[in-house]
From TrEMBL, chain A:
Pfam family, one: Fer2
GO terms, molecular function: 2 iron, 2 sulfur cluster binding; metal ion binding; oxidoreductase activity
Organism: Actinophytocola xinjiangensis
Record protein name field: (2Fe-2S)-binding protein
Domain 2Fe-2S ferredoxin-type intervals: 1-78
Length: 155, 270
């Protein structure tokens, strides 16, 4: 099937898509958007988190056909080549990025949180990021990053 | 469509179906995307009940139904992660019919009914008659789960679940409790401790009989303990990777005791 998806504000079309392949596969392998990472493929790790119509979801659990006509925002759509999104900037500044594999998913999840709830408590931050696994940082610097990003949004 | 292509796999949040597709465990000839069917994606109240559409995501159950369906909302709150709760819903939980499904204990405890639709018509099945075995239910090949109808809470409800962390956990065991202070009935639902979700009928009868409903004093240790033991006795758990049968029974007795205490405290405060 042909799938039409608005991604990061632009209309994209992918052909010869098997309706049951994941949105993640379409993004990475068919549309050249490798920012969303492919790790567990079962919704466990959050590395593929994207906005689907403004709601954070695991792209690996959305069937390509379900994304037809919908709007998707990936980590590539947050900042620009020249200017990082404040959440990305906060991750860089606090050292919340180590191997980097979980980072795109965490950035999207954190982006959603700080815009929905810029005065989130630590417990709320942990809850919001509970679906994103990081095996490097021990999460402390990620929490620092989200607090810093939230301050930026509050201002 | 489901009747014309019974082998088509319905998909809503995709949190079960996509895992099977991603891991090549299933290659259905067709997927039936229920996500765009408006009738399935909302809820409404109707004569003391909530009719909850099959695809209403857990996030909305948590956000919108905490007062009307507190037990189900508490269970929904423990499902997966924010990303999973944004997609998954009760219809898919029932369709998958896992004994560990988080929505099942509160549906059993509240006496909910499941609405199944096909070209042959619509039928409703009590939640405790819906499950036949692990991942098996009365859902026919040409049918879809369209909604659940859950009585609005008529007293305190509780849900508790044992797992290794606070997110992304398939229950080791779980327990749902619903008290009806009007009819003085007690409802129970046991998750992940048997081939299907189970009710603990003896525990329900015991508690309904002995709870001091009039001018309620504190719950005695004896009642709480006996209730826990009756719940544990109703379970038929197995040893598996998530836990042993003995641990599940023990944990269930504790969950049952605790949830009864919490719920009874609510009765007293009211």
């Amino acid at each position: 099937m042909r799938v039409n998806i608005e991604i990061n504000g632009e209309r994209h079309t992918a052909d010869d898509v098997w309706p049951g392949e994941s949105l993640l596969y379409v993004l990475r392998e068919r549309l050249g958007l490798p920012g969303s990472k492919n790790a567990c493929e079962q919704g466990e790790c959050g590395s593929c988190t994207v906005y689907l119509d403004d709601t954070p979801v695991c792209a690996c659990l959305v069937a390509a056909g379900q994304a037809e006509g919908r709007s998707v925002r990936t980590v590539e759509g947050l900042g620009t080549e020249d200017e990082l999104d404040p959440v990305q900037e906060a991750f860089v500044r606090t050292g919340a990025v180590q191997c980097g594999f979980c980072t795109p998913g965490l950035i999207v999840a954190a982006h959603e949180l700080v815009h929905r709830s810029p005065d989130a408590t630590d417990a709320e931050i942990r809850e919001a990021l509970a679906g994103n696994l990081c095996r490097c940082t021990g999460y402390e610097k990620i929490l620092d990053a989200v607090r810093l990003a939230a301050k930026g949004v509050q201002r | 469509m489901k009747a014309a292509t019974p082998e088509a796999v319905p998909i809503a949040g995709g949190t079960d179906v996509m895992v099977e597709l991603n891991f090549d465990k299933r290659r259905p000839p067709a997927l039936l995307d229920l996500g765009r069917v408006a009738e399935l994606s909302g809820w409404r109240t109707d004569d003391g009940h909530v009719r909850l559409g099959a695809t209403v995501p857990y996030a909305r159950i948590v956000g919108e139904l905490g007062d009307l369906l507190p037990g189900l909302a508490m269970a929904a709150r423990t499902v997966g992660s924010p990303q999973i709760r944004n997609r998954g819903g009760v219809g898919g939980n029932l369709g998958s019919a896992s004994p560990a499904g988080d929505a099942h204990p509160p549906l059993l405890a509240t006496g909910a009914t499941v609405e199944l639709a096909s070209v042959r018509g619509v039928r409703t099945v009590p939640a405790d008659e819906f499950f036949l075995g692990p991942k098996r239910s009365v859902l026919a090949a040409d049918e879809l789960v369209t909604a659940v109808t859950v009585p609005s809470a008529a007293g305190p409800q509780q849900f508790a679940k044992v797992g290794t962390r606070n997110a992304m956990v398939i229950a080791v065991c779980s327990f749902g409790l619903a008290l009806d202070t009007g009819t003085r009935r007690v409802g129970t639902g046991i998750g992940s401790a048997g081939p299907t979700p189970l009710r603990a009928a003896a525990a329900e009868d015991f508690a309904a009989e002995v709870l001091p409903w009039d001018d309620p004093p504190a719950l005695t240790d004896e009642v709480a303990r006996e209730f826990g033991e009756l719940v544990a006795a109703a379970a038929t758990p197995i040893d598996d990777v998530r836990g042993s049968a003995a641990y599940r029974r023990r944990a269930l007795s504790v969950l049952a005791r605790r949830t009864l205490r919490w719920a009874w405290q609510d009765v007293r405060v009211r």
